[in-house]
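The instructor's notes for this session suggest beginning with a concrete chain rather than abstract definitions. Hand out the sequence below and ask the class to guess, before any prediction is shown, which regions might be ordered.
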Amino acid sequence: MSVSATDAPTPPRPRRLERRGTFADFVTQRILPLVALGLLGFAGWYVWSTRPVEHNPPPPIAPARNPFADALAAAGIVEAQTENIAVGSATPGVVVEVLVKVGDEVAPGKPLFRLDDRELRGELEVKKSAVAESRSELVRLEAEPRPEKIPVLAATVDVARALVVREADALKRVEETYARKVSTEQELIDRREAFAAAKASMARSQAELDLLEAGSWQYDRDVAKAALSRAEAEVAKIEVELDRLIVRALVAGRVLQVNVRPGEFVGTPANQPLVILGNTERLHVRVDIDEYDIPRFHAGLPAVAVPRGNLQEKYPLEFVRVEPFVVPKKSLTGDTTERVDTRVLQVIYEFDPAGKPPLFVGQQVEVFIDSSEAKGAD
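After discussion, reveal the predicted structure:
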């Protein structure tokens, strides 16, 4: 009997294992996809919000405007009427006292600061002693002869004269005895030598008395006077050096800057100006005119200065002078097209700051010079 395929027994299916879901399954299947979507959205928002955006805002301060129909523009810097006087010390030393502060008004001769002078003062005392010694020597020579010395030398002359008389008498007696053959020839020779020595001694004493009574020699007095003059000159030199240790103002003005403190050592020359002075009653503006604009410039043309940061104020300028030496440009604008080898003509203008907002020495201004008149003249 045959069995068909349909009648064959079916093998049993494998039984599927069932397990309960855990918290980790929940996190990986639900939470992580949500977090990934959130991070993707944040990345897109961050990229969009930080994209470069070009803005063209108006300048915070409008640039200065030319008040003339045709003008020559240049940069200027404010300086004192006397220019900025940088005061230094001609003598190196340690500063012991600063006698001024910024803003003080000083007159010519006003002390600014003082250096240590102890060494020079000690040397000055030595030189004064030398002066006193030289003066005493000159007084001594001019007071010669000393009255007390004359009687002493006069007595010496009298003694020498008496000795001559005695030796003359002795020689006369020996000559008489020698003529009678009583004394020897040697005794006669000794008496003659003693008489000659006595005469020489009297002549010497008399000469010393005459020299003393004549007083000091004129040439000795001249030498003493020269020594005194030299000693006094050395004292004067030290006093001048002491005075140079006190640095003074040579012009009237205002103290614009003080760069020295007590205890600092100042050399020659100093690395920077120690004190800067200037007369600020009227101010100057030093204008740098580019060498390409020099043909358009003419002296005496109207000009105005506009301070940076306060473009509403205009300061009328009065022409003072032109410094004819063209110099390299020092104050660069920072523009990429700036040429460091540009040379400029410096023109000095003057203005009165009274009644206007104050301008300070060293402040930069924009200067406009009317060149329409110059063009018309050409």
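Then share the key points. The chain has a mean pLDDT of 84. The two ends are 140 Å apart (CA to CA).
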